[in-house]
Design goal:
about 400 residues; mainly alpha; Serine Threonine Protein Phosphatase 5, Tetratricopeptide repeat; TPR repeat; TPR_BSK1_C; TPR-like_helical_dom_sf; TPR_rpt; Serine/threonine-protein kinase BSK1-like TPR repeats domain-containing protein
Length: about 400
């Protein structure tokens, strides 16, 4: 059975925050007994070899075929996100707070998740690069000893020549930045070590994470959710999809379906989170990107929606049919952004016109007052001293 990283205690929270990552196990604190039994039949490993130097571990890892390493990276990525997005619900715990069942993403937390997503995608590109992998192992070894070498981490990032990630990291508060990196380094060192030192079959272990019975029951719940959706009973559909997710938390179809329901009932932040879950589980699935972009658009994040759509097109380029839908959405998002920009410009123009009108009226009013004063002056001149004396008195008062 997969074991948690030593030195990190498990956390019972179902929606952990990034500040609390250091207290969270990489793996779900709750495992169904049936799934536990299933995993035990697959997770037999060879006795752990004497741990060699980091350089030797890198050589063993990088000697494997690239396609196999990239498959490992896809799995490790999902395992890294497990404590954040894919924690199964423990049926023994009663929770009346809906937020404990459905995550909502704001833009700040979304930024943090996307940074972690970018870093995990980066590893896939450098999966067979010994220097890059060595940086991961060395950094986590230091972190386990309580040593944080910021300069080395930055150099490791620069080696990948990904300035975008560095810029995003600089925008985050320190505790968020290092919490994300700690979670990343812990997961990757753990699995790289298991694969190389214990002959651990990562693919088999991942595929056996949930038992056949749970997955079958999950499919039944999904069908009932589909039936409710067809009848436009979206709240009921959400309930069934949620039950299906509890049984099989890493099925991307379930999050795509539930995201669509959330969009229909106006729960856009929940739809945003489910869309992102679907993308992380299956980056080449167009509908996950489509739901995610729709949620951003409904939240008024038109530019970000457009950027996310373009990223989705890149990841789904080998799916022509799905790509067609994303291209159509791209045009729609462009039009929405232009409309939003037009509305903003019109508001600015109206505000400017109103300001000019008020200024013009003020000048006009001032001219009328000036004419009135001139007329009064002439009237005073015709009556000589009474009015002149009155004006003199006022003049003295204003001086003080």
């Amino acid at each position: 059975m997969i074991q948690g990283i030593r030195g990190i205690r498990s956390c019972s929270m179902e929606n952990p925050t990034f500040e609390e990552i250091r207290y969270i196990s990489l793996y779900s604190p709750y495992i169904r007994p049936c799934c536990e039994l299933m995993r035990g039949t697959f997770h037999e490993c060879s006795p752990k070899k004497h741990e060699p130097a980091i350089g030797d571990i890198c050589k063993m890892w990088c000697s494997k075929p690239v396609f196999q390493l990239q498959t490992y990276c896809d799995i490790i990525k999902i395992c890294t996100f497990r404590p954040l997005l894919f924690v199964p619900h423990d049926p023994s715990k009663k929770c009346h707070d809906p937020s404990c069942q459905f995550d909502e993403l704001n833009m700040e937390k979304l930024c943090q998740i996307e940074i972690l997503e970018d870093i995990t995608e980066l590893v896939k590109k450098f999966a067979d690069d010994q220097l890059f992998i060595s940086g991961i192992l060395t950094t986590e070894t230091d972190l386990e000893k309580g040593i944080l070498r910021t300069s080395e981490v930055l150099e490791w990032m620069k080696y990948a020549d990904h300035i975008g990630i560095l810029q995003k990291l600089r925008k985050l508060a320190d505790y968020c930045c290092w919490s994300i990196l700690k979670l990343f380094f812990s997961a990757y060192k753990h699995y790289i070590s298991k694969v190389t030192l214990e002959d651990y079959n990562l693919v088999e272990a991942f595929e056996s994470y949930y038992c056949d019975n749970c997955m079958m029951n999950s499919e039944n719940m999904k069908k009932r959710g589909n039936e409710a959706f067809a009848k436009e009973k979206f709240d009921t559909a959400v309930t069934f999809y949620t039950k299906a997710i509890e049984l099989w938390p890493e099925n991307h179809f379930l999050y795509g379906n539930r995201a669509l329901c959330f969009l229909r009932i106006g729960q856009y932040r929940k739809a945003l989170c489910d869309g992102k879950r679907a993308i992380i589980l299956k980056p080449c699935w167009p509908k996950g990107h489509y739901r995610f972009c729709d949620a951003l658009s409904f939240l008024g994040e038109h530019r970000k929606a457009l950027e996310a759509n373009e990223r989705g097109q890149d990841q789904c380029r080998e799916n022509p049919e799905g790509l067609k839908g994303l291209l159509e959405q791209h045009e729609k998002l462009k039009n929405q952004m232009e409309e939003a920009r037009g509305i903003k410009q019109n508001k600015h123009r109206l505000k400017k016109q109103l300001s000019q009108k008020n200024s013009s009226e003020y000048v006009s009013f001032g001219n009328q007052e000036s004419k009135k004063e001139t007329k009064n002056q002439k009237l005073c001149d015709s009556h000589h001293h009474p009015c002149q004396q009155k004006q003199t008195n006022v003049s003295y008062k204003s001086m003080y």
